[in-house]
Amino acid sequence: MLFATHLLLTRRALTAPQLRRGYPRQAFLRRAAVVGVALLATTTVAVISLLPTQPVGRAEAGPGLYDLPSLDGTLASGSTTNSPLLRLVLGAAVPRVHDLIRRQEAGVRSYRQAASLALREQAGAMAGPREGETAVLMQSDMHCNTTMIGLQKELVALLRERYGDDVPAMLAISGDLTTNGTAAEGRCIKDEAAIAGGAPVAAVTGNHESQTSATQMKAAGMTVLEGSKAEVAGISLLGDGDPDRSELFGATELRGDTTEEDVGRSLYAAATKDRTDLLLVHEGYAAQAFIGADDMTSFLDGRRSPTTRYDDGVRDLPASAVLYGHWHRSIAPRVVWNSDGTWTLVMELDTSGGAVDSPTIGHFSTPWSRPQQEASFPVVFMDKASGLVTGYQLYRFEVDGRVVVEPRVDVGDRGKALAARGERR
Fold first, then answer.
1. Pairing of strands 170-173, 201-203
2. Where in the chain is the domain with CATH 3.60.21?
3. Which alpha helices (DSSP H) does 167-210 contain, by range?
């Protein structure tokens, strides 16, 4: 399975010569997966001779070798082996792999159709920005999921049909666009940038992104925050990428000497000098260093009213919102009430791609699978004059194709935001 996944993730380099020979792309990708799975169908020590794929008949196997007719029509067509056991195993495995892939493709199509219909049926529940507000679509941990990328594009189209071409005004991403940060995932980075439908995109890298990914994100037109501040669509943003780097099924290690805590503290110092509207990091450990909390779950569990001011015992936060992802879970946000009359929304973002949080060899998400757990993301509403967050609306995509468009949740002191708008006028 891992080899099959590798073939699919690196399909751009592998497919070019074959596509020039006239192979349909979808059929070629399916055959790549079949070969990958089939060659791992046995633990027998055997020699396999992989001949160049040609859309022609097979040659006879030489002395002591067995041909592998079960691989006809795949990347390994024409291959031979010295193992009769391997020949028997592959003869049984390949048809089953074909069936498995066909079932997965059918399942993805069925999910996409069901979720798309459910989303359109709830278009009337989709909130737009109120007078004086702007809307930002948030995303985290998409992990190249093509199904959810397509559904987010549909969501943007529906919002624009109802509220105009400037809704949402921006797409903001808190990391993990990719699965493993490979060069081949540049295609999905472009697709994720296209979700915004021409609106600007701001992002930080996650632990699954590589330097290659960061370069591809910039090439796709994204504003990549690397400890710096930027203004996008009239909104100020500050953020930094994840100092950790994780390999699929592998270890997580620091890229250098900077830790999550270093990132959070550095961003807090920068925002204290020059307040920002949106603060983006990937992991909660960086967010808790920015906030000055000991543990993000305990901090969020201390939430009270999002609209009524109270003494929350939290230090003033120099940002209108602190947004992070990484943990692939759905948890309610918290509003921090600052002493200057402003407030800060602290929100942990769920996986937008419905990706499994802790993948194993037997259970993991791929870019071509439907969501393996709930996928959700918010649209955040902000007051244009003050930059303060005034509300958010969550969209939930369940694993069975159901979609839940939750009611808008108001945030902060609306009177304060209106007063700030009047002062600006």
1. parallel
2. 129-424
3. 186-194
Tokens of residue 10, six digits: 């690196």
For the segment 227-256, the average pLDDT, to the nearest whole number, is: 91
- Tens of pLDDT, residues 164-204: 999 999 999 999 999 989 999 999 999 999 999 999 999 99
What does DSSP say about strands 252-254 and 244-246: parallel, antiparallel, or unpaired? Answer: antiparallel
Q: What is the pTM of this model?
A: 0.80
Task: State whether the Cα torsion 182-283-343-331 is positive or negative.
Answer: positive
Q: Are 184 and 11 in contact (CB under 8 A)?
A: yes
Cα distance between residue 353 and residue 19, in whole Å: 29
- The angle at the Cα of 117, spanning 111 to 121, to the nearest 5 degrees, equals 145
pLDDT digits (tens, 9 = 90+) for 377-402: 999 999 999 999 999 999 999 999 99
String of DSSP letters for 312-366 = --PPP-SEEEEEE--S------EEEE-TTS-EEEEEE---TT---SS-BTTB---
Residue 67 dihedral angles phi and psi, to the nearest 5°: -75, 165
CATH no., domain 129-424:
3.60.21
